[in-house]
Amino acid sequence: MTDSVTIVEVGPRDGFQGIGPFIPTADKIAYLQRLAAAGLREVEIGSFVSPRALPQMADTPELLAACDGIPGLSPRVLVPSEKHMLRALDNGARFPTFVLSVSESHNRNNVRRHTDESVAEYLRLVATLPQGTDIRLDLSTCFDCPFEGRIPEEAVIALLGKLVPALPGAEICLCDTTGKGEPQQVERLFGMAREAFPQVKRWAMHAHDTYGLGLANVFAAYRSGVRIVDASFAGLGGCPFAPGATGNVATEDVVWMFHRMGVATGIDLDALIPVACDGTGIPGGQSGGRVRAAMTAACG
Fold it and tell me: Where is the Pyruvate carboxyltransferase domain positioned along the sequence (predicted)?
């Protein structure tokens, strides 16, 4: 294999956050251990948010501490505001992900503030980021918004213009929050972004499979030069703040596709499949994907 991609496992955050019955912390740690053992090194383990808004994420500090005992695991955490970013850093986070939306309507619904307010918070944060801390910027609703519909590419580029100069070395992810993006749109937007901001070296794609285009959109991003891809084991997920959005593209599907293409992921698919199978049985979870059922009768 001459090419490679990095898969960021987001199941423990995006996959778990909308599940009602609380998943015991010990069970979450066991999933992190098994995912790491399968070769998934970059894992979004949870988010620092209000426990009233997302009770499932209340144990993220405990999970972050437990990651010190999981060899090879690089834990990431999502933060929606300056206040929660500071909490994350105080708890030892070394790879936080700051999220804001291109759409003002979604940003207000998600983080209760105007997009410009979130931009100002991000700019303050990166100006004082502790040494040795990496950061990722997630731009939600880059392709479609549940409240405003299809998002013009120019709006995404304009927002990036406010954010990129502050820290060009950040990892920047364009997110298809509702799953309504389509491959031509994905390839076009990433092409525009990479041309406008050549100083950014780490672009990422976050796809949802609401309309069955998640894997096609991952491939479109790859064709446009993206080499970092989010995915969720068992296809678990769905944004609680984007009505109608269902699960993320399944990690096992993404791995299978890239391996068939001759693209290395560093992930042991045979070790991942049992984890994905168990993920489908989490009470209250919403799973998706096809590869695990094709590879084993245990998840028929």
Answer: 5-273
DSSP state of 18: T
pLDDT digits (tens, 9 = 90+) for 146-190: 999 999 999 999 999 999 999 999 999 999 999 999 999 999 999
Residue 299 has pLDDT above 70, yes or no: no
What is residue 13's DSSP assignment? I
Q: Annotated catalytic residue: which of 145, 173, 239, 277? A: 239
Q: Minimal CA–CA distance to 255: which of 203, 282, 218?
A: 218
Q: Are 194 and 224 in contact (CB under 8 A)?
A: yes
* pLDDT score, position 168: 97
Ordered DSSP codes for 113-147: S-HHHHHHHHHHHHHTPPTT---EEEEE-SSEETT
Query: What are the C-alpha distances in Å from 69 to residues 47, 73, 75?
Result: 19, 9, 11
Quick check: 60 and 46 in contact, CB under 8 A?
yes
The torsion angle over the Cα atoms of residues 15, 19, 25 and 26, rounded to 10 degrees, is -80
What CA–CA distance (Å, rounded) separates 252 from 272? 7
Q: Are the C-beta atoms of residues 274 and 31 closer than 8 Å to each other?
A: no
Q: What's 3-299's CATH class?
A: alpha beta
102-124 confidence digits (pLDDT tens): 999 999 988 889 999 999 999 99
